Amino acid sequence: MPIPNHDVAAIFSKVADLLEIKGENPFRVRAYREAARTVSGLSQSVADLLKEGRDLTELPGIGKDLAGKIEEIVTTGRLTLLEDLTQQIPGELTELMKVAGLGAKRVARMYQELNIRSLDDLRQAAEQGRLAELEGFGDKTQTKILEEVKRLRRDQTHRTLLAIAAQYAQPLMDHLGKAKGVKDLIIAGSYRRRRETVHDLDILATCKRGSTVMDHFVKYDEVKEVVSHGKTRSTVLLRSGFQVDLRVVPQVSYGAALVYFTGSKPHNIAIRKRAVRKKLKINEYGVFRGNGRIAGRTEEEVYDTLGLPWIPPDLRENRGEVEAAEQGTLPTLVELGDIQGDLHVHTNYTDGRHTIEQMARAAQKRGYKYLAIADHSQRITVAHGLMPKALREQIEQIDRLNDRLKGFVVLKAIEVDILADGRLDLPDEVLKELDLRVCSIHSKFNLSRTEQTERVLRAMDNPYFNILAHPTGRLIGERDAYDLDMERIMEHAAANGCYLELNAHPERLDLDDNHCRMAKNKGLKVVVSTDAHRMDDLAYMVYGVGQARRGWLEADDVLNSRNLKDLRTLLRR
Ligand SMILES: [Zn+2]
Ligand SMILES: [Zn+2]
Questions:
Q1: Which of 365, 402, 377 is nearest to 469 (CA)?
Q2: 127-141 pLDDT, tens per residue?
């Protein structure tokens, strides 16, 4: 395939950025920028122009030297100049120039003085306050840059966190529900499959004749731009830039359309193949034998014609669900209502907002039977091997509160740091006073895979270790997981009576779906906890349960679906 103009232009832009960071002659920098613009604005590809024997120096701003460089890129796919430059300074530095407020000069200084080479480095430096110490930066600039880096990482993935999409979706669905003549109304796509991030929203509706739902949709207050407005399909962009599609489908096709637009693509391909084997045709309008529609009204009907039971959307990723459906071995997925308590929340003893009692009452209101208060260990420093004062106070307060609560128990816990050498941050005499210990890594994310894995395994050897919190440390779209041998960790946990958390915070969802499935296959139970820092955060449980379902977990696979008595037994090592 000939190299597209876009790629040629990208190489020139990168050269321009690197020259600028190096502090080269501004005219030379500008020449490359202009060349990039010229090439990307051409209607014909430079590769074709060369093939036709055209002289590229006829193009505006392209001299002999640049024409030669275009030819080099087109024939070899590379540019020696760019390779030479990246020998001298890291190529990723150009990524930093995308951060608003960072020009070449600042990027150069950050690199020379703080060895910042990538967005991750930049983020770390800003979080640790090192950036503010650079001359001419300061706290304000540092905060702004940090926000910008986070936004950039999100934009790069072009995906929106499920919890944020829900914030857009719920009021919009309320609005649509009020339109005249609407019957069914549902969000399909990855939103329905509860993926941790979604690209856009695909809404399906069925309507009575003469419905005004489409007009109602494009007139929604939050719409910034109507991309298209038709009778059966409209697309809008919300103020945030988030895209929403609405399709109105006939009642007879509703189930088929729902299967089709829920996806995933691989799942749809798998069931289409199955239909073909049965001499059927399946599409968004229905299931057909010859020209006759034999199903389409409901999803159940569609799956039934394929000889399958209905498959929950959370499983539709072509990861064995079609085979399991055929064999009658689909899991009975865990539900929000199965959850009996939350085992990782914070209070105003450390960085949480609310008191122990407020958190307990809020949990009880959600129908839970227990709640574990797990404040951070780093702030609870030990004096002379005695029980730290704050923790002692907290324990006494929990005892008093438990005397007053009916049908609900607050468990004494802690979120204890796993130190770099695998020791826990508090002595055993302190840890043993608690009902359970949630153990986590909050530092030294960059250890090698072996070191990081050994660190966790050693921590689990401590008899007071119960639950490994947010096991991979990832922040969706912001920070990658640290390098761990998850198989070994899960095996060690299972062998030693430890558990792994699925942290339900929408930015974490850690363990992810694949790791949940791995845990299940190893017979290791998962704890779904919210890590709530405020009463409202307890509601994150729904996202944790969603991820657990995507990981094929049943109630039995989730530790906190047990009643308190069984929980205590299972926590005993
Ligand atoms: Zn934590
Ligand atoms: Zn926490």
A1: 377
A2: 888 999 888 888 888
CATH number at 59 reads 1.10.150.110
Distance 352 CA to ligand 2 centre (A): 9
193 and 300 part of one domain: no
Which residues make up the environment of ion ligand 2, defined by Cβ < 5 Å?
415, 531
Query: Can you give the CATH number for the domain in which 169 is found?
Result: 3.30.460.10
Residue 157 has pLDDT above 70, yes or no: no
Lowest mean pLDDT among 134-148, 342-356, 451-465, 539-553: 134-148
Would you give the DSSP letter of residue 557?
G
Long-range CB contacts (within 8 A, 24+) of 267-270 = 267/311, 267/316, 267/317, 267/318, 267/321, 267/322, 269/318, 270/318, 270/322
Question: 441 CA distance to ligand 1 centroid (A)?
Answer: 7
How many structural domains comprise the chain? 4
409 Cα–ligand 2 center, Å: 20
Among 299, 327, 355, the domain boundary falls at 327
| 427 lies in the same domain as 517 | yes
Full residue range of the structural domain in which residue 461 is found: 336-571
Distance CA 178, CA 165 (A): 20
**421 CA distance to ligand 1 middle (Å):** 18
CA of 313 relative to ligand 2 center, distance in Å = 30
Do residues 83 and 227 both lie within one domain? no
Same-domain status, 149 and 13: yes
For residue 375, the ligand closest to its alpha carbon is 2
User: CATH number, domain at 561?
Assistant: 3.20.20.140
Tell me the CATH number at 294.
Answer: 3.30.210.10
Is the pLDDT reported for residue 159 higher than 90?
no
Q: How far is the CA of 374 from the centre of ligand 2 (A)?
A: 7
**Conformational region of residue 459, where left means phi above 0, alpha means psi within -120 to 50, and beta covers everything else:** alpha
Q: Where are the beta strands (DSSP E) in 249-395?
A: 281-283, 286-289, 292-295, 341-345, 370-376
Question: Nearest bound ligand to CA 344?
Answer: 2
CA of 518 to the centre of ligand 2 (A): 23
Task: Give distance in angstroms: CA of 176 to centre of ligand 1.
Answer: 39
Residues 313 and 357 in one domain: no
CA of 79 to the centre of ligand 2 (A): 48
pLDDT in tens, 406-432: 999 999 999 999 999 999 999 999 999
Domain boundary among 157, 174, 198: 157
Structure tokens given for 165: 């999409």
